C-alpha cells in the first residue's frame, strides 16, 4: 500500500470542506461502539502495515543503490527514505498520544 500525496491532500481538502459546511448534527450517522472500535483497529493495523511497507521499500532501494543497480537513482532512494521516516515519525506521535490518553483516562476518579 503506497501513500499517494495528491490523494491524501485531496482527501484532507474534502474533509476540511465538509467540516466548514453548516450541516445539522442529526444528519450525521450514529455508529455502535463495537463497530467503531473494530474500524479503529483495522485502521490502525492498516496504518502500521503501510509504514512497514514504506520501510521495506526504502530498505530495498537503499540496498539496490549500494549494490550498484543503475536503475535506482539517489533521488528515488532519498525520497523513499524520507517517506518512510515521516510515516514512522507520525506513527510514533500517534502512539504517544494514545498512551497519553490512556494514562489520562486511567487517572480519572471513578
From TrEMBL:
Q: Where in the cell is the protein located?
A: Bacterial flagellum basal body
Is Ion transport one of the keywords? no
Q: Name one Pfam family in it.
A: FliE
User: Which InterPro entries does the protein's record reference?
Assistant: FliE (IPR001624)
Q: Which UniProt keywords apply?
A: Bacterial flagellum, Cell projection, Cilium, Flagellum
Q: Which domain of life is it from?
A: Bacteria
Q: Name one GO cellular component term.
A: bacterial-type flagellum basal body
What's a GO biological-process term for it?
bacterial-type flagellum-dependent cell motility
Query: GO molecular-function annotation terms?
Result: cytoskeletal motor activity; structural molecule activity
The entry sums up its family as follows: Belongs to the FliE family.
* PANTHER family in alphabetical order: FLAGELLAR HOOK-BASAL BODY COMPLEX PROTEIN FLIE, PTHR34653
Q: What NCBIfam families does the database record attribute to this sequence?
A: fliE (TIGR00205)
Q: State the protein's name.
A: Flagellar hook-basal body complex protein FliE
Species: Pseudoalteromonas amylolytica
Amino acid at each position: 500500500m503506497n501513500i499517494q500525496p495528491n490523494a491524501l491532500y485531496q482527501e484532507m481538502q474534502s474533509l476540511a470542506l465538509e467540516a466548514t459546511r453548516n450541516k445539522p448534527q442529526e444528519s450525521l450517522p450514529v455508529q455502535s461502539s463495537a463497530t467503531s472500535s473494530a474500524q479503529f483497529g483495522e485502521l490502525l493495523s492498516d496504518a502500521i502495515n503501510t509504514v512497514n511497507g514504506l520501510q521495506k521499500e526504502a530498505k530495498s532501494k537503499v540496498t539496490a543503490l549500494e549494490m550498484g543497480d543503475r536503475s535506482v537513482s539517489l533521488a528515488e532512494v532519498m525520497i523513499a527514505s524520507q517517506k518512510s521516516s515521516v510515516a514512522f515519525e507520525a506513527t510514533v506521535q500517534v502512539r504517544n498520544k494514545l498512551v497519553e490518553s490512556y494514562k489520562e483516562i486511567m487517572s480519572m476518579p471513578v
